[in-house]
């Protein structure tokens, strides 16, 4: 199995310490950020399988429901929402793919019960909230880091675990199209195919199951498309009506349609989750660090992909973002 040895020795010690805690402790709470994506879902499922191989008790809880697009992953039935969680006091909470505790949503209220909090993440904006923090911003994904624990712990990887690893990396690299695609991520995915993963099966489930509501929402979003700063910035939005009606809408990846526009450097997509409250996804192609842009708005992420939440009407939110972007482009 591929193992990336290019990590700092001190950081490597932290990962071995996390492995020791998995072997020593008995009760685990595993969680990730709100609005779960492919990397976060894959990471929590993979760690759950790792912990259970040592006969430990693990509860996987996230703030909201697992997006339907990931229901092909075995083990998603073990994930409970905050509303479904029964009283539980974990020895250890493992927070995956979240740069701060606030990103875990309501689950944050349970995390304080743990004597030990482990943060495993690949966001450079991680604020170091854990008892032990292992953050590798050079990793393609958080699931790639969790995969390293399999090597350290010396356990056998199952076909299901291989599927989690492959899916998480594919999702967070945009099917190997984003700049975070590395030699390590490609080599690991090749290994996962060796362990039985079928790339066509994953691609079909991720990209060929859009609902009619999602396509209508995409059409509505594209109709709002606008460009600024001589075409260097593109943006679009989706109003609350599409979400509040209970439609089966998956907006993950909408912002990536803007990346296809030649001449743009920064793209952002705004979705009104509640009246007057927007979730914003930002992307850049070459030189603008959108992690810094999102950070100025109370969010964070990566240099080429980040996000935040902003209150206000659509015009005010757009203007707030553009006012920050004008100093970058």
Structural class: alpha/beta
Uncertain runs are none
Q: How many strands, what sense, and barrel or not for the largest sheet?
A: 6 strands, parallel
**At CATH's second level, what is the architecture of the largest domain?**
Alpha-Beta Complex
| Count of runs of 4 or more consecutive helical residues | 11
CATH fold type of the largest domain: inorganic pyrophosphatase (n-terminal core)
Which whole number gives the mean pLDDT? Answer: 93
Major beta sheet, strand line-up: 3-2-1-4-5-6
CATH H-tier superfamily of the largest domain? inorganic pyrophosphatase (n-terminal core)
What is the terminal-to-terminal distance?
42 Å
Looking at the structure, what is the overall shape? globular
Could you give the order of the helices and strands? HEHEEEHEEHHHHHEEHEEHEEH
Total number of distinct structural domains: 2
Detailed description of the structure:
- This protein has about 325 residues and is α/β, with parallel strands linked by helices.
- The chain folds into 2 domains: about 10-205, inorganic pyrophosphatase (n-terminal core); about 210-325, Diaminopimelate Epimerase, Chain A, domain 1 (Roll), CATH 3.10.310.30.
- It has helices at about 10-25, 40-55, 110, 140-155, 160-170, 185-195, 200-205, 210-220, 240-245, 290-295, 315-325, and strands at about 25-30, 55-60, 80, 90-95, 115-120, 130-135, 225-230, 235-240, 265-275, 275-285, 300, 305-310.
- Helix 3 links the parallel strand 4 and strand 5.
- Helix 1 packs across helix 4, helix 2 (about 40-55) packs antiparallel against helix 5 (about 160-170) and helix 5 packs antiparallel against helix 6 (about 185-195).
- The protein is globular and about 55 Å long.
